[in-house]
Amino acid sequence: MINVLLVDDQPLLRMGFRLVLETQPDIAVVGEAGDGAEALAQVTSLGPDVVLMDVRMPGMDGIEATERITRDHAGSRVLILTTFDLDEYAFAALHAGAAGFLLKNVQPAELIAGIRTVAAGDGVVAPRLTRVLIETFTRRNPARPGSADDPRLDLLTDREREVLIEMAKGLSNAEIATELGLSEATVKTHVSRILPKLGLRDRVQAVVLAYQTGLLRPP
């Protein structure tokens, strides 16, 4: 069972998310919070697997709450939900350690899939936002001539490079497994090795590095 905490300052939105999620036999909404401070208290007492977090809230916002949760409660992963496209708030939340980012107008099936993905230890970014994410990061940190020779890439095996490329396309571990003809467990092992080898915290940073070094070209 995946235990979920809903964090949003609008009760009606929380109600809507609850109604969607409670239709699933493997998901349980264990609590709700209207701001970041309340979310922290709920995470401490309930220990949810996934925190569905709004970004802009009164008092402690979702960014600070996400940073504290990822720092002090490693067992709870944060999935950001917002009405806004990728902006400074969203980027800050990802930097704070959020495992994923979806818009609030997401289809119910995509929301449910995102929660399951994050609960399984993977990351998720709304497919239509992946290109915006990459373009924004690479615009801020443009690739340098010859950066495809980044020495960090030499630390990867050929198979790990293949996995990194598929990660950069926004594929989940399960999708990478299908694409490369591997088991999902093997892909997960490769990902767990790739990140420390490259000195990266999460899949989002890995995706950005793949584009910055020219390992994969923007679509």
Short description:
With 219 residues, the protein is α/β, with parallel strands linked by helices. It is 51% helix and 13% strand. Strands 2-1-3-4-5-6 form a six-stranded parallel beta sheet, sandwiched between helices.
Set out the fold topology.
Layout (H helix, E strand, L loop, with lengths): L1 E6 L3 H11 L5 E7 L2 H11 L3 E4 L8 H11 L4 E6 L5 H8 L4 E4 L4 H12 L4 E2 L1 H14 L17 H11 L4 H8 L3 H15 L4 H10 L7
Parallel strand pairs: 1-2, 1-3, 3-4, 4-5, 5-6
Helix pairs in contact: 2-3, 3-4, 6-10, 7-8, 7-9, 7-10, 8-9
Describe this structure in words.
The chain has helices at 11-21, 36-46, 62-72, 88-95, 108-119, 127-140, 158-168, 173-180, 184-198, 203-212; strands at residues 2-7, 27-33, 50-53, 77-82, 100-103, 124-125. It has a six-stranded parallel β-sheet with strand order 2-1-3-4-5-6, with helices on both faces. The protein is of the alpha/beta class and 219 residues long. The longest helix has 15 residues, at 184-198. The protein is globular and about 50 Å long. α5 links the parallel β5 (100-103) and β6 (124-125). α2 (36-46) packs parallel to α3 and α3 (62-72) runs parallel beside α4.
Helix tally equals 10
Largest sheet: 6 strands, parallel
Q: What oligomeric assembly is this protein in? A: single chain
Helix content: 40-55%
Give the beta-strand count. Answer: 6
Protein name: Response regulator
Pfam families: GerE, Response_reg
Keywords: DNA-binding, Phosphoprotein, Transcription, Transcription regulation
InterPro entries: CheY-like_superfamily, NreC/VraR/RcsB-like_REC, Sig_transdc_resp-reg_C-effctor, Sig_transdc_resp-reg_receiver, Tscrpt_reg_LuxR_C, WalR-like
